[in-house]
Amino acid sequence: MERARNGPQLVTDELTEVAKQDRPTVDAQGRNLAESIEGVIFERLAPLADHRGSLMPFLDVRDEFQKRPAAAPVEAGLSVLFVCEPIREHALAQFGDERHWGYTEEDALRYFLDHVDALPQPVARIVVRPHPSEAGGKYASVLREYGLPVRLSDGSGLVDEIATSHWVAGCNSVAMVVGLVAGKQVLCCIPPGGRPCLLPQPGIQHLQAILQTKAGHA
Question: Is residue 19 included in any domain, yes or no?
Answer without folding.
Answer: yes
